[in-house]
Amino acid sequence: MIRCKGMLILLTLMMMILSCCGEVLIRSEDIHQRIYKTYRQLETYQAKITVIVTSNKTTKEYVMNQWYKYPNKFKMMLLEPEGFNGLVTIYNKGKIVTVHPDMQGAFILHNYTPVDKGHLFLTDFFENYYKSQQTSMQTFFQGQAKYTVLKADIPGGHAHRVSQAMWIDNETCLPFKMEIYDDNNKPVITIIYEDIKLNVPMKEEIFEISE
Fold it and tell me: In the chain, fewer beta carbons within 10 Å around the N or the C end?
């Protein structure tokens, strides 16, 4: 009788564990689908970000605004540090221009193909993630917040850009941060998203290049 009760308790416990595992799996699949639908249909976004670049000797921090418009229009404007504030880089239809308020004129490249924009843009990450054969997805807690962490290898064999990971807030489906890792799995670039808006109306004038 005691043995039967023990078996019953064990079976009940196993059912509870399996039930919990099933619930976690469903939720995991649900957030993955939400992320996919959100960023598959991304037409525009604008964001204020902090970029932290770490090397063996120094750590540098930059604050900038970003704009993106599908399929291939990008803009960055540096806000900090002092001396670089106001520096603007625009990529639009095969042209890239860099302008600074203190510069006379602008530096323009024609017929430019952005093979590597430094992986600084949100769209770069998701394009790489959904093409990569080496990906992972994990859940990460920070305080009361819950994040889904997507990670993928970066093609090209660069020792200082081997893989990258994106933290997505499970509640809002917005990015919290992105990190790029070297061959020792140490972050060499960290991007913190302070303010980001997806699929907002965006005028073409933002990406105009004056020659």
Answer: N
